[in-house]
Structure formats: C-alpha cells, structure tokens
Amino acid sequence: MTACLLNVLFCSEGGPSWSVPTGRRDGTVSIKQEALDQIPAPTMNFTELLQSFQNKSLNLADLVWLSGAHTIGIAHCNSFSERLYNFTGRGGPGDADPSLDPAYAANLRRTKCPTPTDNTTIVEMDPGSFRTFDASYYRGVLKRRGLFQSDAALITDAAARADILSVVNGPPEFFFQVFAGSMVKLGAIEVKTGSEGEIRKHCAVVNKH
Ligand SMILES: *[C@@H]1O[C@H](CO)[C@@H](O)[C@H](O)[C@H]1NC(C)=O
Ligand SMILES: *[C@@H]1O[C@H](CO)[C@@H](O)[C@H](O)[C@H]1NC(C)=O
Ligand SMILES: *[C@@H]1O[C@H](CO)[C@@H](O)[C@H](O)[C@H]1NC(C)=O
Ligand SMILES: *[C@@H]1O[C@H](CO)[C@@H](O)[C@H](O)[C@H]1NC(C)=O
User: Fold this and answer.
1) Fewest CB atoms within 10 A around its CB: which of 4, 28, 120, 143?
2) What subcellular compartments does it reside in (predicted)?
3) Whether residue 14 has pLDDT greater than 70
4) What confidence tens digit (pLDDT) does each residue in 117-134 have?
C-alpha cells in the first residue's frame, strides 16, 4: 500500500467514483475502485490480508469494513478467471476454486466469462446492486460468491465472519458508520505516508521533476 495508492483512493478524476459518508468535515470522500482492489492483492489468503493491513496499523475489523467497498466494484474476467478455469494449474472448467460457489462459477463461465483471457468484459462484484453502497456484497461473500480469493478469505476466519454477520444483520447505518471509521483511519495513513513520499499530481502517474 504505497502513498500513491492511498492518494488514488481519494482521487476522483478519471473513471467512475462514488461518494460515501465519512467522519470528515466535508462529509464525503470519493473512492476509486481499482485502488481498493489493489489493497491488498486479490489473491491473498486471510493471513496475508491481515498482515498487510496490520503493516499499515489497520486491524482485522478494518479489513472487513474496507472490503465492503466491493459493494460498488466491477472486475474484468481475466482478473479472477483462474478461479473459474485454472485454480490448481490443471486447466479447464473442472479446475475451479472450490471456495467459490460451483453454481455461481458455472454461471460466470457460461454467461459472463467464456474466455479466461477476456480483459474487457466487466463483471459486477455485487450483482444487482453494484451501484448501491449497501451490505449486499457481504451477503454474496457469505454465499461464497465473492469474485476474488481475498473476498472468499474473509469467511475463513471466525472473527472476520462474525464482523460480516454483524453488518448483514445490522441496520444499514451500521455499515456506513464502520466503513466511514475505517476510511478515516486510512485517510490518516495517507497523510503520514504522503509527507514522506510525494503527492502525485495525477493519480496514476509519477510527478515529473
Ligand atoms: C497463506 O499464503 C501464504 C503465502 O502463500 C502461505 O505461506 C500460508 O501458508 C497461507 N496460509 C493459509 C492459512 O493458507
Ligand atoms: C508486512 O511487513 C513486513 C515487514 O516489513 C514485510 O516483510 C511483509 O512482506 C509485509 N506483508 C504484507 C502482506 O504486506
Ligand atoms: C494454467 O496454469 C498453469 C500453471 O500456472 C499455466 O502453466 C497454464 O498456462 C495455465 N493455463 C491457462 C489456459 O491459462
Ligand atoms: C487485452 O488483451 C488484448 C489481447 O490479448 C491485448 O492486446 C491488450 O493489450 C489487452 N489490454 C489490456 C488493457 O491489458
């Protein structure tokens, strides 16, 4: 999680962005989805995910709440197609990730991602609700329908699973509150690392010196 990635998080230029409530005085902050997808790698297991968050002074609950940003996420087929076609390296539709709901995997292969290398077709991470900032991403994860291994990993840990259940069973405001709290912590990291590194003028490009 570099200073740049964290900058990109708060960068609204280029590509779609959404406003979410935060504890900041201006009340909103925009998120670039691709940046969240890189924090951390989508192939990480739970141990690695937690380590990468703890490395940035974020905790297990922050991992669960910030993963909730996938409620508005989209992904290209090729970013998760090894979970559909080539999980162990044997290849073929029978080589799907067993942690992914088999019926959902079959549906994705048939209707969305018939070609593993497809880098243009977009798949909603929270089907039916990907424009709405809500808890339905977590319901999908509980049904083993998260697109990435890092989504599936969240229910391999008892504490993380309990946090997910607290969002799913709580009022919508609960998710907004905890998400906003973790975003504020993330924002504080940005300030710290930003002063050490450089604040990029354009999100995706290193400043010219
Ligand atoms: C997580 O991944 C790391 C690195 O590949 C591996 O060493 C570790 O055993 C994995 N942990 C679990 C619980 O699978
Ligand atoms: C966490 O930090 C340690 C020490 O700097 C580093 O070796 C490790 O690769 C980091 N792990 C992750 C997942 O970022
Ligand atoms: C499947 O994975 C293996 C091992 O990573 C790789 O050698 C092979 O090229 C992959 N097959 C396809 C069709 O991507
Ligand atoms: C998508 O795949 C095509 C064909 O393999 C390749 O030419 C192109 O560079 C890829 N685009 C991106 C953005 O990776």
Assistant:
1) 120
2) Secreted
3) no
4) 999 999 998 888 878 888
Ligand 3 pocket check for 89: Cβ under 6 Å? yes
Atom 9 of ligand 1, nearest CA residue:
47
- For the chain, the average pLDDT equals 78
Does residue 95 have a pLDDT over 50?
Answer: yes
| Domains defined for the chain, CATH in brackets | 40-73+125-187 (1.10.420.10)
Q: Is the CB–ligand 3 distance for residue 92 below 6 Å?
A: no
Annotated binding site for heme b: 70
Q: How far apart are CA 47 and CA 42, in angstroms?
A: 13
* Nearest atom in ligand 2 to 51's CA: 13
Query: Three-state DSSP class for 124?
Result: strand
Q: Is the peptide bond before 40 cis (omega within 30 degrees of 0)?
A: yes
Lowest-pLDDT range of 34-43, 61-70, 112-121: 34-43
Residues having CB closer than 6 A to ligand 4 are: 117, 119
Arithmetic mean of pLDDT, 64-87: 92
DSSP secondary structure string for all residues of 169-184: TS-HHHHHHHHHHHHH
Pocket test for ligand 1, best of 43, 48, 87 (most atoms within 8 A of CB): 48
Write out the H or E segment, with its range, that includes residue 35: helix 33-37
Determine the pLDDT at residue 192. Answer: 47
